[in-house]
Amino acid sequence: MISVRELTKVYRQPTRDVVAIDDINLDIDDGEIHGIIGRSGAGKSTLVRCLTLLDRPTKGQVIVGSQDLTAVSDTELRNARRRIGMVFQHANLLSSRTVAENVAMPLEIVNTKKAERRAKAIELIELVGLNGLEDTYPAQLSGGQRQRVGIARALAADPDVLLCDEPTSALDPNTTEGILNLIRSVAERLNLTVVIITHEMSVVKNLCDSVSLLDAGKILESGKLSEVAGDVNSQLSRSLLPLPTHDEVTADLVIEVVGKADAVNTPIGTTIAAENPVTVDIAAANIETLSGTRFAHYLLGINSDKPINLTGIEATLARHGFSVRVRAKQGVQA
């Protein structure tokens, strides 16, 4: 559904050029919810603007469906943008208009008849759980309700794609959960492809099917959530499955391991010790469910009165579905 090829955005400055997006390649499947996560200044908002051609890339392609948005006429681009709904960090509602009038704005712009606009707005207001508030003004709504209106407005033109730029960063945790559940529900019901820009890993964990890590305008990692979380060497995995606070681990060998699905049920310490002459201490552990799959992340201290065969331990863990990252090794066989 969405393909980005060699996307680059350079802002020309009198003293130096600023590269905001640097040669990005990305594919997002139909019906997928894809999270793009990064710190402030990583280039997330610039990427959103380039995806809609509100900011024209310096180089590269943005393909939505079968249409290259960087190669179409202005008229074709305006039509293509109607297939892309936008949800912003702040709902940006017009205070002088009712909820229904705010939702109907995209239809008003394309001269849809008033009765049709009203009927569509009422339908969408019900969809986002605001029944009975169609004639209410934004000032009378909570932050979460205003964001629901923003989502309804983004759906007014029946888009294929929903772009969400930090849609929950101004909300409290309980309201955030409700908005994420709503986005998931709407995406499934309307068969939407969703791109959500965020700096909050909790949003990715609770909503996304796939994820990309953006830093300094580059995508450092990208993939299905289950794949990146299952790779202990992935920076995203360590953020998705953080270990709890723990004491410093002193052992002959210190390793991190991550397993998923059936591997989670493996008794990790006894399994390693059964095939290797070592003792195993679990220093920290985290078990979570992400995108419908269970994951286990362990920090292990391994000791032995003999040189430790790291290759043998890695082989044992691999057979049981775990990936391994060595943190420290002192008593390991050369």
Automatic annotation (TrEMBL):
<dbReference type="InterPro" id="IPR017871">
    <property type="entry name" value="ABC_transporter-like_CS"/>
</dbReference>
<keyword id="KW-0067">ATP-binding</keyword>
<dbReference type="InterPro" id="IPR003439">
    <property type="entry name" value="ABC_transporter-like_ATP-bd"/>
</dbReference>
<comment type="function">
    <text>Part of the ABC transporter FtsEX involved in cellular division. Has ATPase activity.</text>
</comment>
<dbReference type="InterPro" id="IPR027417">
    <property type="entry name" value="P-loop_NTPase"/>
</dbReference>
<keyword id="KW-1278">Translocase</keyword>
<dbReference type="Pfam" id="PF00005">
    <property type="entry name" value="ABC_tran"/>
</dbReference>
<protein>
    <submittedName>
        <fullName>Methionine ABC transporter ATP-binding protein</fullName>
    </submittedName>
</protein>
<dbReference type="InterPro" id="IPR003593">
    <property type="entry name" value="AAA+_ATPase"/>
</dbReference>
<keyword id="KW-0029">Amino-acid transport</keyword>
<dbReference type="GO" id="GO:0006865">
    <property type="term" value="P:amino acid transport"/>
</dbReference>
<dbReference type="GO" id="GO:0005886">
    <property type="term" value="C:plasma membrane"/>
</dbReference>
<keyword id="KW-0813">Transport</keyword>
<dbReference type="GO" id="GO:0005524">
    <property type="term" value="F:ATP binding"/>
</dbReference>
<dbReference type="InterPro" id="IPR050086">
    <property type="entry name" value="MetN_ABC_transporter-like"/>
</dbReference>
<keyword id="KW-0472">Membrane</keyword>
<keyword id="KW-1003">Cell membrane</keyword>
<comment type="subunit">
    <text>Homodimer. Forms a membrane-associated complex with FtsX.</text>
</comment>
<dbReference type="GO" id="GO:0016887">
    <property type="term" value="F:ATP hydrolysis activity"/>
</dbReference>
<feature type="domain" description="ABC transporter">
    <location>
        <begin position="2"/>
        <end position="241"/>
    </location>
</feature>
<comment type="similarity">
    <text>Belongs to the ABC transporter superfamily.</text>
</comment>
<keyword id="KW-0547">Nucleotide-binding</keyword>
